[in-house]
Amino acid sequence: MLINKSTLWLKNVTEQRDSLLCKQDCPGGWTKFGCKCYFSVLGSWNKSRELCVSLGADLVVMDNKEEMDFISRYDGDPWLGATYEASEGMWRWVDGTVLSVDNPSWSGGKPDGGKEKNCLRRDRGQQPNFKWTDESCEDYRYGLCEYNLIK
């Protein structure tokens, strides 16, 4: 019982902390959703990531369905924060977590494993349920930066 009470107490304190921290505003020009701020940049996947990092952010990592729904409001098919690591043979988010090729968010038949398609973007072709697709990292498009208000 003690472990359960301790766990509940810690969860409650963490939620209270997050609630207070989430009252912060995003920098000018950024859009707030939950405890994160979002901003669009333009360039290749690498250039977009570089621009995001220069702003103290990184390309967006999809954490949940609510975030995916929020991101669907953005026009175009922005770069998302995952890439295929040929040396490891797997997809990874920029935070280091593995993106499974079995994830239901992939468009049908994707990723298709082409040598030139090693970066992740949103695929509007699956409206209203936006999906993901693999794309050449050199394509010029919007990238979606994400800044977490809770550090």
UniProtKB/TrEMBL annotation:
Main location: membrane
GO cellular component, one term: plasma membrane
Alphabetized SMART domains for the sequence: CLECT
Domain C-type lectin: 33-146
Name of the molecule in the record: C-type lectin domain-containing protein
InterPro entries the record matches: C-type_lectin-like, C-type_lectin-like/link_sf, C-type_lectin/matrix_domain, CTDL_fold
Topology in membrane: Single-pass type II membrane protein
Pfam name, any one: Lectin_C
Compartments, record wording: Cell membrane
Organism the protein comes from: Gadus morhua
